[in-house]
Amino acid sequence: MPNNKLALEWLSFAERNLETAKLLNHHNHYTDVIAIDIQQSVEKTFKAVFAFYGKKIPRTHSLEILYNFVLTKDIIRDIDKKKLLLISDYYISERYPGPRYFSPDKDEINDSIEFAEIILNQIKDHF
Asked: How many domains does the chain have?
């Protein structure tokens, strides 16, 4: 059974993360910090689809896993999977120091923000 109210709550949180990323980017904040908000925005956007369709929200940060479910609902178009995997990796590589840590450059952040916004808008249009 669809749960539009819960889906819209997830989308509201996703919008907040995306707005935070944009604001931090505008102020030339650390790109590794911005990257986490971008990843969180996409993750919460995808989880809104689970909520809408009354499915249990998976406890994962993997955008690929979440995206595979979203694909079954035919509500998103023309998504570059390489960009999606790059953004998914932000959550792991940017949160903790170590061998996987990297700081995305400004161009990559700008591209990722635009990509996240496209995903958010496509899914919002579905609800």
From this structure: 1
